[in-house]
Write a structure and sequence with these properties.
The protein is α/β, with parallel strands linked by helices. About 30% of the residues lie in helices and about 15% in strands. It contains 18 helices and 20 strands. The strands form five sheets. Strands 1, 2, 3, 4, 5, 6, 17 and 18 form an eight-stranded mixed sheet that branches. The N and C termini lie far apart (about 60 Å).
Length: about 550
């Protein structure tokens, strides 16, 4: 078995000679980049998309680890912009796995002939604003250089994998990789001694699948997460027909919910119902599909500590009922945060995995990893031998993808240094001192069921660029006053949520990344309808809040 540390990259043979100058350069060919390319090209802009991978899909290209799948309902996640596309594509599962999602992304790219404008297997190394001609100079790691009036980042929230700071990682002589860089050829873990480090969303999904065929599986957990049943299943032909007929209403409904999921927050407060009613409601949520238990719960569950504790206690009891060994069950119950204050991993018999004799759970808080050896892992108390080590250790979230590129705005200001104390944006799409640069799902944008917010961001950016062209404008930037105002609003929205008092990627924490040990506000925590209303207000007032030349 060979060591595997990253994706292999090959040039796409369809990539012919490239022009050097474009109206817009888009970084990334995931869900954001594909739609941005489609939208701008339909408006007559000359666009180049630069993509590090050898194919489209972004998250769904790189994260091909076993068990990777949606936590949003498939039919609520796909694009809504094309009626023809909606009628043609049949989702096979309520929560589709990575292979089907990657197939979907390729289907979209082929249907609209998008690949001809995507430069594959090429990673952007720098993007510098050139004041002399109001354009961006963009270079790749291959030494190529392009220019465009507009720069658009479609680089994803969770696209920069992080490795733990263990000694000896490269000394291991077996196969190893990060879940976010899973090789196309896969990893043979059948009948092997496997270690998985990490029990976040990716780890939970991978553990469920790997446990089925591994000879032994040892899970190293730093801290547990609250996980709830996904209740996935196939979509029948009749169900898919009904879904297609209801698409207009479904997408309109998603626009009205707090985070663009199909689930709607219950209007009742936790203590406005009897204990009997409350427990019955909890049971119905636990038996339901997907994020209903998180996004369809009582209105005060994520803001009131007493309400949150009741829900946390309920889920904790479910874990105890599902895990045979009481000590293991307690290890799997979070003690440092309440239910839903971090994004909730969805699972299918995850807790039952630990009832199997070939699966072992190690708490890294009780028995920390000291180093990786050539044969396996050495903890404080023990030494383990493994054939395969899987690092499910998360991402340098939100700002990480920006920081890995040398992005410099006016007066050669690095974006990384500008965001040293946390990101500051306007609407999550623009940054002061960075003219003609737009971000799709940038820091302080509305998140949740992300494609719904992606479509909004893309359409707002595209309409703005069209407005500039129509009015013979060549430069657009956000003044500092607009950034300050947006930052104040975002900060105010964050004050009421319990989740902002918890260490997670959603509060800017990553113990494996220098400078990310202090909580910062990295996302907009108001409702999606409120966010869109503010963005639309800017557009309806002819973008007068911005500095246009």
């Amino acid at each position: 078995m060979t060591k595997m540390t990253s994706h292999g990259r090959t040039m796409n043979k369809k990539n012919g000679p490239l022009d050097k100058k474009y109206d817009a350069i888009v970084i990334g060919a995931g869900m954001s980049g594909l739609y941005q390319l489609y939208k701008l090209r339909s408006l007559g802009f000359k666009v180049l998309v630069i993509e590090a991978g050898s194919g489209v899909g972004g998250t769904w290209y790189w994260n091909r680890y076993p068990g990777a799948r949606f936590d949003s309902e498939s039919y609520s996640y796909g694009y809504s912009f094309s009626k023809e596309l909606l009628e043609e594509w049949d989702w096979k599962e309520h929560f589709s796995g990575q292979p089907e999602v990657e197939k979907y992304c390729n289907y979209v790219a082929d249907k609209f002939d998008l690949k001809k404008d995507i430069y594959f297997s090429s990673r952007v190394s720098f993007a510098h604003y050139e004041k002399s001609n109001n354009s961006w100079s963009v270079g790749t790691e291959k030494g190529e250089q392009f220019s465009a009036q507009f720069l658009i980042t479609a680089i994803g929230l969770l696209s920069t994998p992080t490795m733990p700071k263990f000694d000896g990682v490269k000394d291991f002589e077996g196969a190893w990789c990060h879940t976010g860089l899973w090789p196309k050829e896969g990893i043979d873990y059948h009948n092997k001694k496997v270690a998985v480090i990490g029990t976040g969303a990716s780890g939970v999904q991978a553990i469920q699948d790997i446990s089925k065929t591994a000879k032994s599986l040892t899970v190293f957990q730093r801290r547990p997460n609250w996980c709830t049943p996904l209740h996935n299943g196939p979509i029948s032909k009749k169900e898919m027909e009904n879904i297609k007929a209801g698409y207009p209403e479904l997408f309109e409904h998603c626009k009205k919910t707090a985070a663009c999921f199909i689930h709607t927050i219950d209007s009742r407060g936790t203590f406005e119902v009897s204990e009997e009613e409350r427990l019955a409601f909890y049971e119905s949520l636990y038996a339901g599909q997907g994020f209903g238990i998180w996004q369809g719960n009582f209105r005060d569950m994520l803001t009131d500590e007493r309400a949150n504790k009741l829900m946390s206690d309920f889920v904790a009891q479910k874990i105890r009922e599902r895990v045979n060994d009481p000590a293991t069950a307690e290890m799997l119950i979070p003690k440092d945060h309440g239910f839903g204050t971090r994004r909730v991993p969805q699972e299918t018999f995850y807790y039952e995995v630990y009832n199997q004799p070939h699966v072992k759970l190690i708490s890294m808080l009780d028995d920390p990893i000291q180093k990786i050896t050539k044969d396996g892992i050495k903890t404080h108390s023990s030494e383990f031998q493994f054939d395969v080590i899987i690092y499910a250790t998360g991402f340098d979230a939100v700002t990480g993808a920006f920081n890995r590129i040398d992005i410099r705005g006016e007066n050669d200001i690095p974006l990384k240094s500008k965001w040293t104390k946390g990101p500051r944006t306007f609407l999550g799409m623009m940054v002061d001192d960075f003219p003609n640069m737009f971000m799709i799902l940038g820091p302080h944008a509305a998140l949740g069921n992300n494609p719904r917010s992606i479509e909004h961001n893309v359409e707002w950016i595209s309409d703005f660029m069209d407005y500039m062209r129509t009015n013979n404008l060549t430069r657009a930037e956000s003044p500092l006053s607009a950034v300050d105002e947006w930052h104040e609003l975002v900060s105010g929205k964050a004050e009421t949520l319990l989740g902002n008092e918890v260490d997670s990627w959603m509060t800017g924490i990553n113990l494996n990344v220098e400078g990310k040990q202090t909580r910062t506000i990295v996302r907009y925590t108001g409702t999606a309808p409120e966010y869109r209303a503010r963005c639309d207000d800017v557009a309806q007032n002819n973008f007068e809040e911005l500095r246009l030349l």
